[in-house]
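Researcher: We're teaching a course module on how sequence relates to structure. For the next exercise, students receive a sequence and then see the predicted structure as tokens, so they can try to spot secondary structure elements on their own. Here is the exercise chain.
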Amino acid sequence: MKLLIVSQYFFPEQFQINEIAPELVRRGHEVTVLCGIPNYPKGIVFQGYETLEDCKHKEKEYFEQTGVHVIRVKQHPRGHSFFSLLQNYLSFIRNSKEEVRKLPSDFDVVLGYQLSPITSMYAAVEYKKLHGTPLIFYTLDLWPVSAESILKSSKNPLMLPVARMSRNIYQNADRILVTSRPFIDYLSRVNGIERERMRCLPQHAGSVMLSMDLQKETHNGCVDFMFAGNIGKGQRIDVIVNAAAVLGARIDYKVHIVGDGSMRNTLEAMVKEKGLSNNVVFYGNQKRDDMPLFYKKADVLLITLRGNNEVGNTMPGKLQMYMTTGKPIFGAINGAANEVIKEAECGDCVGAGDYKGLADLMKSYIESPEKYKDCGINARRYFNEHFTFEHYMNGLEKELQTLIRK
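Model: And here is the predicted structure for the students to work with:
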């Protein structure tokens, strides 16, 4: 199979496509990735990739290591303003469409690795129109609803043309793979995609912690809850802080928040204001290799997400990673993540934003931890059945080959 992958983001930017493309090569396929000059998430170009000539040198090294052909196109760096971000989107559309017109016509299938913005898929659609090549999207961000966070409101007059554009791009795909089941409902209802053209293929997570013994070495007379990940508006860590406020400043629990993001300073001030400085502790970003040490200190892992639109129905990749630790998981989250936690019997869940319900779950564990003694085992078993890299790659490869045969 000769495969063209279109993704605005690629190595050294940190996305799972970095693992997927080399694995397809290892499985005997010829893979070419069309992407932009790396500048995510800081909005400035990565050192060593400043020009296309620099990129060619880097991609030669990358090909020797992985066997993946990489084609970079110029794009305006994301920067830190709406105007700069818009320039980033528009420059990738223009330059990636120009580049695909130069590519040979013998690719068997095009895989659009669809993050935000949806406009990054125009080049994939262009190649299909030029050569009639089957096109499959792996959709990780829903559009047009994801545009609300960029345009600051669902009532912004720009939402109407964005909605039309999104519908048109999705309609060009022969097959759409989604990360969670609620995506299928949304794409069908809003973008008119027939359900038979879609299938759920959840993201994979690294399995390195599956074989680790991460149980607490000592019982310190205190229940340790932990959140790990980005601390942004969408993650709704304020729900965790408010749940702690309901429990109060007591000595039998702590909440450990590992990570960083735009809301960290606000949340730290909130913790101080509520008199919870001894109960809620922030650690900032930590090295990936050090994370098992943090998980080893935790009794229960917490996951929260906003629930005000369809984006809140997604299943964050954090959930799969949590499952590998063998710890109970408590969530204040809607949609697919809520369903999986309950289906896997790996913890318990209340709706997004329900801080009182989350406080009740935390209190339940503090008072009766034995009720949750099997949750960690259940989490790892469910992960092995649904979320391993091999499981993901088998599903993706099958979908690609089926589409070619059709």
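Model: If you want an answer key for the exercise: The chain has a mean pLDDT of 93. The chain has 15 helices and 13 strands.
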